[in-house]
Amino acid sequence: MGAEGSVWRVVGRGGTVGEITVDGSGDFPWLGGRFTPGPAHDAVKPLFERELALLERIDEDPEAWEAARAEIERAVDLVSPQGPVAEFLLHVDGDRAWFRWSDEPFSSG
Question: Taking the model in full, what pTM does it have?
């Protein structure tokens, strides 16, 4: 999973938030690619913008970033070409997205 050219979907309660076409721009274990917004993108766009702003200063307030990340995870699902993944970290910045994922929940330790 995750090969260059594969299309991953970001799905929210309102439908398709967008699609990520993997282009090899990620740095393992991250995958990166072109993000194409879908009809439900506008509803969650502020969540992605807030998460990125907090990521820029994560050392100052890691709890705020973690809360923003968790909000994204509650609002959307990441769907691989084979189906939904159990857990993910996702960043969307304009027409670019990068993410990591797992078929099992991430360890909390």
Answer: 0.89
